[in-house]
Design goal:
alpha+beta, 3 domains, 13-stranded antiparallel β-sheet, 13 helices, 13 strands, 31% helix
């Protein structure tokens, strides 16, 4: 037996000796969690989340940084691990603190069915995808605006360090500042009440499911790695195709002179018609009733269109998958180009003659540290997660597929 505290180990030894103590199996949170779970796996972990989130260690080291969400949402959980030669499967059950506020999925199964409609669009070679039900308008804006129209990682994090102040040099003001009154409130700048037209049309559609797909492909010369993205939105209300094309055309047209290359050109794929800008931008769009597809790659859009004729997949509240084996090499190659880390020799960045020995160079975070972690998990072919909201509890299935 191993323990992190002496009292825990002493209590376990006391129970083994048969002396009277209150065992863990008699506590309410434990019995409720175990009753909600299925048969135990090869390894079972039962968690008192109310107690865990109160510890300073958990608040400090929980990498997801969503302690407040866990504290307000879940009370206890069970995780069972099932192992086979080709797969590790983790079955999780998380008990909800307030089922009434989380019963939307259980009372409206059509929401999970909408995710099933979105998942049928995922092509077999997709490197990464995630889909979830009832996305917010901000989720849709982030997916379309910041990942396809103008890709970026969002605003820079707020610095927690105070700015440097020069005491010996620098100007502290001028004579004109003496005329500025500090006892009067300055008039507020007029607020811009004009709503973003893209946000307006996304809100009016009332989306029931969102699908995001990302992929990487080496360039034809093998020097660089390209990234492609696509977004699919399943809405409750029908899309206005002309209006969507007009708004997206306006968004892209502001980046060009005289809107050159910002005109939609129709293309046919079978019985479907999608639109692509006629300039250097590869922005492609497909609209049909309640389905909206937007991509920065016409090839990726065509692959999604091929799945539109398939029957819907099994629904879920959230589903995601990463093809680790396929994407690992592209990720490291891309990060080395960005970080300027150079090539790797003999499987170790410290063997690179350009870098010298280990003591003369700090490892690059993404290409070296994260790349090394990825190589350590080289046998992991893919990872996926599927989440279902059953009203009083949340059920998650996590799969790690092993490469043969």
């Amino acid at each position: 037996m191993l323990a992190t505290r002496e009292d825990l180990l002493a209590g376990a030894l006391t129970l083994l000796s048969g002396k009277g103590m209150n065992p863990l199996s008699g506590e309410g949170w434990y019995t409720k969690a175990v009753a909600a779970a299925a048969k135990p796996g090869d390894l079972r972990m039962v968690m008192n989340l109310d107690a865990i989130v109160a510890t300073p260690q958990f608040r400090s080291y929980w990498i997801q940084e969503n302690v407040s969400e866990i504290k307000s949402t879940y009370s206890a959980g069970v995780s069972d691990l099932f192992r086979t030669p080709t797969e590790y499967r983790e079955e999780r059950v998380l008990l909800l603190k307030d089922p009434q506020s989380h019963s939307e999925a259980a009372s409206n199964p059509d929401l999970e069915a909408s995710v099933g409609q979105a998942l049928r669009l995922v092509p077999s070679g997709a490197g990464f995808y995630e889909s979830w039900a009832k996305p917010s308008t901000d989720d849709l804006m982030q997916a379309i605006s910041t990942e396809i129209l103008s890709p970026h990682f969002g605003p820079r994090p707020v610095s927690k360090l105070a700015p440097n102040v020069s005491i010996s040099e620098g100007s502290v003001g001028s004579e004109s500042d003496l005329e500025v009154r500090i006892d009067e409130v300055r008039p507020a700048s007029p607020a811009n009440k004009e709503e973003n037209p893209l946000k307006t049309i996304l809100a009016a559609a009332d989306a029931s499911a969102l699908l995001k797909i990302k992929d990487t492909q080496p360039t034809s010369d093998g020097v660089f790695v390209q990234t492609h993205s696509a977004v699919a939105v399943i809405a409750k209300n029908a899309w206005d195709g002309d209006k969507v094309r007009e708004i997206l055309q306006r968004s892209v047209g502001n980046m060009t002179s005289a809107r050159l290359g910002a005109t939609w050109a129709p293309h046919k794929q079978g019985a479907s018609t999608y639109y692509q800008l006629d300039g250097l931008s590869a922005l492609s769009l497909y609209v049909d009733q309640t389905l909206l597809l937007v991509s920065d790659s016409p090839d990726m859009l065509q692959s999604l269109l091929a799945g539109a004729a398939k029957p819907p997949d099994k629904g879920a509240w959230y589903a995601s998958r990463l093809e680790h084996k396929r994407e690992s090499g592209n990720f490291v190659k891309m990060m080395r180009s960005i970080e300027g880390a150079g090539p790797t020799y003999a499987g170790s960045p410290d063997r690179n003659p350009e870098h010298g020995n280990a003591s003369s160079r700090q490892p690059k975070f993404f290409s070296d540290n994260i790349g090394s972690l990825s190589r350590t998990l080289a046998r992991v072919e893919s990872e996926s997660i599927e989440v279902h909201d059953l009203g009083d509890r949340e059920v998650q299935t996590v799969r790690y597929r092993w490469a043969e």
